[in-house]
Amino acid sequence: MYSNSQSIIRLYLIVALVAVSACAVHAQSGRRQPRTTPAAPVPTPTPEPTPTPEQEKEDPGISFLVGIDRSGSFASYPFSFYDAVLQGCSDRLRAHSSAKVSVIGELSRGEALKKAKAETTAYVVLLQLKQEAMSSSSSNSYDQLEIEYVVFAPGTSKIATSGRSYPNANRKGPLIISPTGRGSTSTVYAEQLLRYAAEDAAERILKALHLTTIGTTNLQVENRGR
Please, are residues 222 and 115 in contact by the beta-carbon 8 Å criterion? Predict the structure, then answer.
C-alpha cells in the first residue's frame, strides 16, 4: 500500500514537471524577439576626379616680316652686305623675343606699306643700307655706312618706330676676318660690322615695341658722338 502511494506521487511529480516545462517552452516561443537595428552601411569613398589641365588659349601674339630695300641708295654695295644686314636683324628679333619672324628679302617702301596694311598681327620691318648723311666722302667707303630701319604697324601701316644704326668698330665681341687678302679682309670685316649694327637695330625695335628681350647685351647704336 505504501509503495503504491509513492508510485502515484512520483507520477504526479513527473506530470507536473512535464507541464512546467511545456509552459516554459510556450512562454519562450511567444515572447517577441527584440528588433536589431541594422548597422549603417560604411560609405565607399568616391575617388576625386583627376583635374584635366586647362587648354591654353591660342595667342596669336605678334610677328615680324623683315625685308630690305636694295634700291634705296644711290651707292652700290656688295649683295653680301645686304644679306648680312637682313640676316643680322631677323636673327636677333627671333632670338630675343617670342615673335615669329619671316624674312621677305627684297622689299620696297611701297610694298612694305601694302603688306603692313593687309596684316593683322605682323609688323613689317624695312631695312635700308645707306651712306651716312653727315659723311663728306663721296666714295663708297665701307666705314661710312649706316642702317636705316622703319617698322610699319599691322592694319594701319603707320610707323611704329624708326631709326638708324651704325657699324661700330669698337664694339666688344669677336670679328671674323678672312685672311685671303686685303680686299677680301676689308669686305668680310665690313659685313661683320654691318651684321652687328643690324642686331643693334633689332634690339632697338624690340625695346620700342615694349617686347621683353632675352639675354640683351650692352648695345651702342644711333647716337654716336660725332
Answer: no
